[in-house]
Amino acid sequence: MTVHIGAKPGDIAETVLMPGDPYRARWAAETFLQDAKLVNEVRGMLGFTGTYKGNRVTIQGSGMGMPSLSIYANELMTEYGAQTLIRIGSCGGMQPHVAVRDVIIAMSATTITSPSSGIFKEINFAPTADYALLAAAVAVAKGKNTTTHVGGIYSSDVFYSERPDLDEQMVRHGILGVEMEAAELYTLAARHGRRALAILTVSDHLQTGEALPSEDREKTFGDMVEIALDAAFT
Length: 234
Ligand SMILES: Nc1nc2c(nc(Br)n2[C@@H]2O[C@H](CO)[C@@H](O)[C@H]2O)c(=O)[nH]1
Description:
Blueprint: E1 15-18, H1 22-32, E2 34-40, E3 47-52, E4 55-60, H2 66-78, E5 84-93, E6 103-110, H3 117-120, H4 131-142, E7 148-155, H5 164-172, E8 177-179, H6 182-192, E9 195-205, H7 214-232
The structure holds 8-bromoguanosine (BG2).
8-bromoguanosine binds next to strand 5, strand 8 and strand 9.
């Protein structure tokens, strides 16, 4: 076990899905995995390991924000040997052609700051998804009738933005959506030579103010989990 994960050695699979919400980790494990068992509940950040079509997989919550994700991703990679980490989450849409219920497969993740900013100093590192994983997710998504966008997202440190001028520049430069975790996941995966990807459902929209009704969230979230699982084992 580690400082923040109570799983025993061998309890965590090489492939890990990371929703922000631990209750979504439980729902996804119960819905998609066979023989799912709880392997972590330290601080309520639930983690489950089971199999998907015969492949071993762990679904571990990351919490909200890059500092929280950084703790779990670091420990999963350095202490449990996770090789493929896929964030499955929600985001806010930032382009008129990106609608609520759509899925975004994040090629890159822009930040103002991140937990890794301190070590990069004057380097503007470009957090980037693993290409093979991204290509597999795009191929799987094509087989579903979910509208999918592939491009850059913005990993913010705040949900309540005080800088509309920054949001404006992100929109101007084609950023598809905003969330709060992917950039640090991509940076840590690059640091540790692992594969990472973020697949996001658009659950609210910054321009239209629309928000996904709660009854729709489970369906769109389920589609995204399936894309992640099928892409991970392609
Ligand atoms: N900053 C930000 N985060 C968002 C937004 N919509 C969603 Br869903 N999120 C994500 O949802 C959580 C906040 O509700 C964080 O973990 C973010 O990744 C949004 O409009 N803005």
